Amino acid sequence: MAHNRMKYKNIFNFLTVCTGNFMAAASYTIANPIYPSEALARGVIVSNTGVVLGSAYVTASLITPFCCKLISKWGAKKVYAFGSMVGGAGNILFGLLDYIHGPVEFFWLSLLFRTISSFGEAVVLNSSYPIGTKQFSENHRGKVVAFLDCCFGFGTAAGPSIGSLLFYASKGFLAPFLSIGIIMILLGGLMLSQDLKNEEQDTQSNEILKWTDILNCPGISANIVVLVFGSPATKWVAASSEPHFIELYGMTSVDVGLALTGNAIAIALTHPIVGVLLDYGLSSIFLIFVGNALVVLGLIGIGPFPGLQALQTIPMAVFSLVLIGMGIATIILATFSNMMECAKRAEIPDSEQATSMITSLWLLGNYVGAFLSSIAGGLTFDLIGFSWSCTLLASIITVAACGSLISSIISRKKWASYQQF
To answer: How many Å separate Cα 136 from the centre of its chain?
Structure first.
């Protein structure tokens, strides 16, 4: 009976974390469809609107490395609750901008409140993985991470719809942010009230780990390289795909949006499949290689590769986007699993702090890759065209993937010979 109670408690804790991930992700994107028009109505220029919306990702990149420090001191539960409450408060403050009408005040307060909410969102995301993975045995880690990623992905996709629906239903700017803010604050309070598995033991027995302890683990750096170059492939073509498809195929912006939705759906559906495969023992290195191969094939098809003009069809473009989505989902989950394996082989203790530090590096790889890909994708499109731009990224990913694969194999052999010795 006690065992069943503990099992249900762990499931409830995990569902709470997943809900928080969904809300934090929705908070990232809820302002996208409604804030620009409100800002323009108050005389805020478009570039400043972009600064406000983009500040969320800058804040996330800056705060991510410090989250593990907080977790090592307070424990993941308190940090998660703190982040959820701060994110909720930031959203409520952002909604109160409905009563600000001066362009200068509106811009600077928008930037301040968006920074506060994105600070909370980043903290929630960083602490959710240490909490989630601790609720179940290591045999279920792949499925746990996959489900957390799915919740974040669905939240990101649902955020704009939630924002638009509440905005038009209430005919005001306050309701969307007030609603999500209250829910996040309540989730933070709920998390504080929970008795998390191994929470006290982890915070008391944690050894003080340094970043060099994690980075020196054989294979960690190789995974980060794969993340930087492979996982944000969609960002590379995000800015250039719309003008390319419109010019080449005569598609409308709505058609392009639907085509890109196929990419998002492929990512969401692939996550659980890869999670199950990892839990059944399929090699994470093999899956990383498969993920990179899918992304490369997708880039060759969507370009298409110079000389393969016969592939220039709308079905091939959509199919290529689906391949890229499947590859990205595979890379993201397999790299996290492999980074955890690398730490375990290096005898890093399986603690909240270690998981948080690995999560931070994993997320930073995605953030840096997304930022660089967004810039480089648009720049190469202007300089060499869409086809050669996609071919260039495919070549870079191929080199990075092969190099990382060789590095991982060598590091594993060294570790195996050391163990035998």
So the answer is: 22
Amino acid at 63: I
Task: For residue range 289-341, list pLDDT tens digits in order.
Answer: 899 999 999 888 887 777 777 677 878 888 888 898 899 889 988 998 888 88
Residue 166, C-beta contacts closer than 8 angstroms, at least 6 positions apart: 175, 176, 179
348: left (phi over 0), alpha (psi -120 to 50) or beta: beta
Candidates 7, 156, 27, 150; CA nearest to 84 is 27
Residue 82's nearest CA partner among 134, 123, 125 is 123
CB atoms within 10 A of CB 152: 22
Name the residue among 343, 16, 65 with its Cα closest to residue 194: 16
Q: What number of residues does the chain have?
A: 421
Packing angle between helix 284-302 and helix 314-345, nearest 10 degrees? 160
Amino acid at 220: I
Q: What are phi and psi of 346, to 5 degrees?
A: -85, 5
For residue 101, the 8-state DSSP code is -
33, 160 Cβ separation under 8 angstroms: yes
Q: Name the helix (H) or strand (E) containing 71.
A: helix 46-74
Which tens digits make up the pLDDT trace of 180-220? 999 999 999 888 887 665 554 444 444 577 778 888 888 88
